[in-house]
Each structure stands twice: as C-alpha cells, then as structure tokens.
Amino acid sequence: MKIATYNVNGINGRLPVLLRWLKQDHPDVVCLQELKCSDDRFPEHELQEAGYAAVWHGQKSWNGVAILARGGPPVLTRRGLPGDPDDNHSRYIEAAVNGVLIGCLYLPNGNPAPGPKFEYKLRWFAHLLSYAEELLSYDVPIALVGDFNVMPTELDVYAPERWGDDALFRPEVRRAYAELVNQGWTDAIRHLHPRERIYTFWKYWRNSFERDAGLRLDHLLLSPTLAPRLKSAEVRRSPRGWEHTSDHAPVMIELLPA
After folding, report:
1. Which residues contact 116 (CB under 8 A, 6 or more apart)?
2. CB neighbours (10 Å) of residue 75?
3. Fewer CB within 10 Å, N- or C-terminus of the chain?
4. Is the dihedral of CA 245, 236, 104, 117 positive or negative?
5. What gap in Å lies between CA 40 and CA 168, rounded to an integer?
6. Residues 6+ apart with CB under 8 A from 192
7. CB atoms < 10 A from the CB of 145, how many?
8. Cβ-Cβ contacts under 8 Å for 142 (sequence gap 6 or more)
9. How is the chain split among helix, strand and coil, in percent rounded to 5?
10. What pLDDT, in 10s, does the model give residues 100-112?
11. Closest C-alpha among 68, 10, 82 to residue 41
12. Taking Cα atoms as reference points, which of 152, 146, 142 lies closest to residue 224?
C-alpha cells in the first residue's frame, strides 16, 4: 500500500501535473493540500478517469484538503478538525481506506510571527495535539499526513540560521511537533533516513530547487499499530522540476501488507 502527501498549490491550475504524477507513481492513497477551490470546482470527474475516487473539503481561493484512493472510495469519517467550532478554514479531512484511517491536514503557515496568524497556528496545533492523542487511544492503524508547515529540526532546513524568527521554525512550533511525535507517532521519513538532509519544498525564486535550498514541511506520521508495516519513505522529487508545478514535491511511503 502506497500512501502519499502532496501540496498541489491549486488543484485545477496544476491538474496536468497531478495527473501526470499519479500515472507515474500509482499511489494507492493521496492526501492533497492547498486545493484553492470551492467544493463545486473540485475536479472529481478527471480524477475518476485517472482511477481515483475522492473525498474533499474545499475553500475558494485558499486552503482545501482532499483524500484520493484507488480500488474503492475512501470512507469519510471527519471533515474539519475538532476543538474550535468557529474555525471555518478547510484544513482537515479524514477517511478510512483499506483498513487504515487517514487524516489529511494543512497546518496554518503562521507568518508573520509574532502576530494573530501565529497565534492561530499555535491554537490549531493545540487542537491537533488533543485530537491526535484521542486517535491513538483507538489503537487502530492511523496515518496523519500532510503539510505541517514545520521544519522539525535543523536537518530539515537548508540554512537554519536564517529561519529562527519564521513561523515555520520558531521554537514554539518545533516543540509542538516534538510533543506530537512523542505521543507515539513515527515520522516515516526521519525514521528511515535519520541523518539525511531531505527537503519537500523549494521556493520558486533564486533557483531554490536547482540549488537544493529547500525545507522539509510535508510529513507522514504513523501510529504504533501502523509503523511496523513501514517499508520505504521517500520524496518524489521529479514533479518539482516539471513545468507549471507546485513548489512542493510529493512524499510517498510504502507499507507492508497487514
């Protein structure tokens, strides 16, 4: 079973790139972020033609998350992160696929920091921590997947000395991520590649991708019941080099059969 996460940075504008990558790598489950489209503009038909059923939580111009699955439709279990009924951002969706509960998330960026956007990021992270702990109590195979907008360690950013005050790297955010992992989640990429400098995002400017001046923002966290099945984890870099592509690359893991 192959599970991937991909911040598409606008699903309709990048649809040719997404479809090309799906045909290339054939993931079984895909978590998408930054759809940047309303629910009625989601390209359901085109994805069905490519062999994928989907559930999604859209938002016009901003945010938006979706879960795609091959071989059968994902069974929607939640739309929206619990804890703040007034939060109208489309940042979390959850579905069961082939015996695994998949939580797809797009954590707030938080810049500029300090400020209201950063405070919102910390509140959202607090709600995620609470809900993630609840999920673990179910003792079932779970993957929390998506764009966390966090570089957990200095190994996850090309020039850590330049990022100390950024909302993606501030100590409060890194502590929150560490607290999340310490609940019992396994960071798939870091578990299999503990000392490698690995990135999932490169800015469009100053030849960042060509210079490999990137950040690791996209993570796949596995529950204790799922982590033993982890076979491989890698960043699929090639789509980042395609024309009119996202500034993120897909990240994909492979799981052994249950």
Report:
1. none
2. 14
3. C
4. negative
5. 31
6. 230, 232, 233
7. 28
8. 100, 101, 102, 103, 135, 136, 222, 223, 225, 226
9. 30, 25, 45
10. 999 999 999 999 9
11. 10
12. 142
Q: What is the pTM of this model?
A: 0.98
Tokens of 87: 């939060």
Q: Where are any strands of DSSP class E within 161-236?
A: 186-187, 218-222, 230-235
Superfamily of structural domain 2-255: Endonuclease/exonuclease/phosphatase (3.60.10.10)
Q: What is the mean pLDDT of the chain?
A: 97
| Alpha-helix residue ranges (DSSP H) falling in 71-170 | 116-137
Give phi and psi for 14, each to the nearest 5: -105, 10
Q: Which residues pair with 96 in a beta bridge?
A: 75, 101
Nearest to 30 by CA among 38, 40, 42, 22: 22
- Can you tell me the mean pLDDT for 164-178? 97
Largest pairwise CA distance in the chain: 46
Distance between CA atoms of 62 and 9, rounded to whole angstroms? 9
